[in-house]
Each structure stands twice: as C-alpha cells, then as structure tokens.
Amino acid sequence: MAVTANTTLMFSDLRYAIAHGQWRHTLAGAPNNTLSRLTGYPSWSLPIEDNDWNVRDAVTVFSVVVCLISAYVAVKVCKRQGKIAKNPLNCAVAVYMIATAVATLGFEVLDLGKVWTPFGMSHNTAEIAILLILVCEGHKEGYQYLGTFLVAQYLICTLVVFLLPWPLDALFFKWQGLATDIALVINYTRLYMHNLPEKEKKHKKQKQPIALEEDDETGVNGHVSISADEPGMNASNSNDTLIAVDEHGMNGYTNTESLKRSAGSQEVCSSITLLITAAALHTFGNCVQSTFNTLFSFFVFQFLYTVFPPFYVFFICHKVDCKGMISLPTTWIKETFVGIGCMILSMLVVALGSQHQLSS
C-alpha cells in the first residue's frame, strides 16, 4: 500500500510540476539516488547496501574490453567478407556491437543518467534497427524509410529522457530498452521456426512453378513416369524405375542437391540459434537488474555484457550464406501484436522491479 501511495504521489506531483513550470524538478516521494563519481550529477542508481566499487569497476571494465574487441572483430569480418553490402542484418549486428561498446564505455565513465543517455540510446536504437531489418526483409520498400525512422526514434526518446524528472526518466529509458530486448528474443525465435528444414521445403514448394506435362508418357519436368502395373513391368524393372525417379526427384533436382539444401537450412538455423542465445542472455540480465537492487544483480547484468556480444560476433563469422535465410512472413497485425505484447511485458517487469526496490 505504501508503494502504491508513493507512486500516486509522484504522478500527482508531476501534474502539479508541469502546470507550474517545475517539470524538471525531482518528484516528491521519489527514492534517493546516488551521484556520478565523475560529474557529480544525479545518476539513475539507487544506493546499494552491500556495494563494492572495486567489484563493480572490475566487472564493468572487463565488459568494456570484451565489447570493444567484439565490435572490432565484427567490423573487421564484415569488411573482409564484403557482408556489409550484401547483407543488412550483418551490418546492423556490427553497428550494434559498436553501439554496445560505446554505451558500456560511457557507463563506466559517466554512470547511468541524463548525461549518459545519448550513449545508451545508441544501443537501443541499434536494437530497433535489427528489428526493423527483420521486419522489412520481406518488404524491401520499407528500407527507404529505415534511416529516417531510426533518427527520429533516437532524437525523440533522448529528448523525452532529458525532459522527464527523476525517477520517470530512468523508468522510461528502462522500459523502452527492455521492450526492444524482449522483441529481439521473440523475433529471433520466429525467424528460427520459419527457417526449419521442413518449413523451408514448404516455402520453396509453394514458390516452385508447376511444369506442364509434355505428353502422357512424360512425367514431371520431362522424366519418364512408368507405372509398375503396366504390362511387361516386373518387380526388378519396377525397382529400377523407382531408383531412377528417386535419383532425379522433383523438378529435376537430384537427391544430393536436396540434401545440400536441407544441410544449408540446418546451418542457417544453427546461426540463428546464436542470435537467440545472445538476446536471451542480455534480456535475462536486464530483467534481473530491473527487479533487484543488489551488488549480485548488478554483477549478473554487467557480466553478461562479456558473454552475449561474442555470440553476435560468432553469427557474423559463421560461414553461412544468409541469402538462404527465409525472411519473416510479416504483416501489420502480427508486428503490432508483438510490439504491444513486448511493451506490456516490459512495463510489468519495470513496475514489479520498482515496487520491489522501493519496498526493500
């Protein structure tokens, strides 16, 4: 009840502050926050009883080093393999690694807060870029608006964080960042399910043109089709015919080519598994840090920044032709449903975490 009363008081004070031109002031009833060690400005970090700056700096510096190395390797591999021009997803992942390194380095120097927001928002915008590429892959005309949308999203969200008072600025940033993290996990999983070998066969079968039979004696694409019930056909000849048809298969493809396509689909799925793992680890750490305010929760969150970036780098380095990746069958209804669901889930996590931290 006390938490609900504090939340109601904060929003009541926000309405009063806006009406009286005091919207930049910290809201009454807001929890006490710490100050940045470098700038002295208020940060978004709450005091931690078991805090140990030695441990926090150690794990943060370690994550900065790993993120910088991951960004360097990602860009290097993309340039060497020429994947930047060929595959937008690889390019977006490489940019995401750069933005993550910048955000992590900025956090170590400035601490979380309004001053750090331009660095942290680049990380969130890069995640949105990956999401939009996954959505627009089947609708190439959407690419022409991609850059404009990302710039607008970055500027608007950054401006909102600048203008909101504490603690609404931190809650808004956490909410929209966690929503994109959840959306990445969901869309990577959808992409994996859509690229399974059986899904690929169904997809290609639907796109395969139906060949007209040349005559009654000609089978699919010119292959002779002989029934085993015809006169003069014995069991041996029947087996031979079955073998011949099996060797060539449908539409003139050999079984070897079919196996290659199946193996290629499995390689694509294994590469997408790297994306799912990376996004799931990052989302898990974000949820832990959003829910608890302890040294251990911070350690888990920050240490996972040394784990998930290499998975993205492995995805870029994976020797798989991403042209064989089947794009998501997106519609406005599907994407709207996923987007609203992610925002609601993120709101629930942030709300539950805020109540838990305020009550503890």
Quickly describe the structure.
Keywords: Membrane, Transmembrane, Transmembrane helix. The protein is an all-alpha fold and 360 residues long.
Which features does this protein show?
360 residues, mainly alpha, Rhopdopsin 7-helix transmembrane proteins, 0% strand
Can you describe this structure?
- By secondary structure, the chain is an all-alpha fold.
- The protein has one domain (43-203, 254-359): Rhopdopsin 7-helix transmembrane proteins (Up-down Bundle), CATH 1.20.1070.
- Helix content is 69%, strand content 0%.
- It contains 13 helices and no strands.
Instruction: State the shape.
Output: globular
Work out the radius of gyration: 27 Å
Number of helices: 13
Portion in helices = 55-70%
Mean pLDDT score: 78
Note poorly predicted spans. 1-5, 17-21, 207-263
Kindly give the count of domains.
Answer: 1
Distance between the termini: 13 Å
By secondary-structure content and strand pairing, the structural class works out as mainly alpha
CATH architecture: Up-down Bundle
Mind describing the biggest β-sheet? none
Tell me the fraction of residues in β-strands, as a range: under 5%
Number of strands: 0
Keywords: Membrane, Transmembrane, Transmembrane helix
Transmembrane segments: 58-77, 89-110, 116-136, 143-166, 296-315, 336-354
Sequence-ordered SSE layout with sheet pairings:
Elements: H1 2-19, H2 53-81, H3 83-86, H4 88-110, H5 117-136, H6 146-163, H7 168-194, H8 197-207, H9 235-248, H10 255-291, H11 295-303, H12 308-317, H13 332-359
Helix pairs in contact: 2-4, 2-11, 2-12, 4-5, 4-12, 5-6, 5-7, 6-7, 7-10, 7-13, 10-11, 10-12, 10-13
Keywords: Membrane, Transmembrane, Transmembrane helix
Transmembrane segments: 58-77, 89-110, 116-136, 143-166, 296-315, 336-354
